[in-house]
Design brief:
Elements: E1 2-3, H1 5-11, H2 16-23, H3 27-34, H4 42-51, H5 56-59, E2 60-61
Antiparallel strand pairs: 1-2
Helix pairs in contact: 2-3
Length: 63
């Protein structure tokens, strides 16, 4: 699955650190998700999409 996390985060003017704080997780974990080296579950995808003020479909795209 590809994602638009970084693009959307930057559109909102957020750093990885700020997004990590919003989601109560580490900046390193956010980096891994953005770089698609870490898989996530549906619950986390929903949390991320909400934090980025978008839908899951807008952020996470099937390959």
């Amino acid at each position: 699955m590809t994602n638009r996390m970084k693009e959307r985060r930057e559109e909102l003017g957020l750093t990885q650190k700020q997004l990590a704080e919003k989601l109560k997780m580490s900046e390193a974990y956010i980096n891994k998700i953005e770089n698609e080296t870490r898989n996530i579950n549906v619950v986390l995808a929903i949390r991320i999409a909400k934090a980025l003020e978008a839908t899951v479909e807008e952020i996470f795209l099937p390959n």
